[in-house]
Amino acid sequence: MNAVNKPKNRYKDLCAFDHSRVKLDIENDDPNSDYINACYITGYSDVEKKYIASQGPIDVIIEEFLRLLWVSQTGKIVMLTNLVEMGKEKCFKYWPDSGEEMKFGNISVTLVNEDNYSHFAIRTLKLTKDEYGSRTIKQYHYTSWPDKGVPTDIASLVEFRSKVIKAVSPHPGPMLVHCSAGIGRTGTFIALDYLIEEASAEYSVDIYECVKQMRYERVNMVQTWGQYVFLHDALAVWYIVEDITFPVSSYQQDYHTLLKVNSSSGKSKLQERFEMLNDVCPPQSTADCSVALSEENKNKNRDLSILASDKVRLCLSKPYTTDYINAVFLSVR
User: Fold this and answer.
1) 293 in Cβ contact with 287 (< 8 Å)
2) Where are the extended beta strands (E) located within 38-119?
3) d(CA 79, CA 77)
4) What angle do CA 142, 14, 22 make, to 5 degrees?
5) 3-class SS of residue 120
6) Of the N and C termini of the chain, which has fewer Cβ atoms inside 10 Å?
7) How far apart are CA 212 and CA 64, in angstroms?
8) What is the CA radius of gyration of the chain?
9) By C-alpha distance, which of 17, 14, 24, 68 is closest to 180?
10) From its phi and psi, is residue 49 left (phi > 0), alpha (psi between -120 and 50) or beta?
11) pLDDT of 143-191, one tens digit each?
12) Residue-wise pLDDT tens digits, 269-279
């Protein structure tokens, strides 16, 4: 690694390979100005440069990151980290608040629109480069994925991936995916998309070969054992659920179709989907409900099979003897 480029890497031991790295345009005749810690990743069926796997930007390379967005002609950014996690900055905020503008070098960014959901946000960003005009791109920000861990709601990531892929982009460049280091969560998301395409086309998947190929193009893609296992689980959820969304315009027609009874099972498609929830939703364990099951709180539950989870329970304030009540907060997708 060139000493001049070392500070451009968020983590000292994670660099971009020479053979797969994304090269920026050289500026001011500086031969080192083409480096950024981002790599091209091959897609299913050997589609070259299908994805860009990048580290999340740090303050010293925010100008380079915006140049990456511009030169790659990407229309979609998939962000898989929060800005701060466990008290540590994981990604520099490269977009402004609504109504404001950020400018680094000769590229400025404006936030056009932002929609927030329970597990992700979708932002429309406008990039403007001096004398080259403007370009609008979408940022899909999944917010429920812990660093080096896995999402607890597998179905939410599968749904998120579907929303990203279905969105039409006016730009021809590859989808840019980043987390913090750009290998763990980034690698898992790219692998999931790759393998769903493979499964749809061939009715089989080779997860090992997929991850091995990605690691040839970027180090340690799918970083942890837990992420590798999660990839299998996410594919299983996708296989069970498939695509169950339908447009509002055809809701009435699709709903009547769901009500038709399958002669072989004696159940309607709607009933089968309801029963399918047990297969895809994470089960509640006693460890998740330690407060509800404590001796002082057990009798506050009408049914010991229906408890308030520690993670989402509503906490009462004093002067009550304990802060427990069998009630939880719910998010809206």
Assistant:
1) no
2) 38-43, 47-54, 76-79, 84-85, 88-89, 101-104, 107-116
3) 6
4) 75
5) strand
6) C
7) 29
8) 23
9) 14
10) left
11) 999 887 899 888 889 989 999 999 999 999 999 999 999 999 999 999 9
12) 888 778 777 76
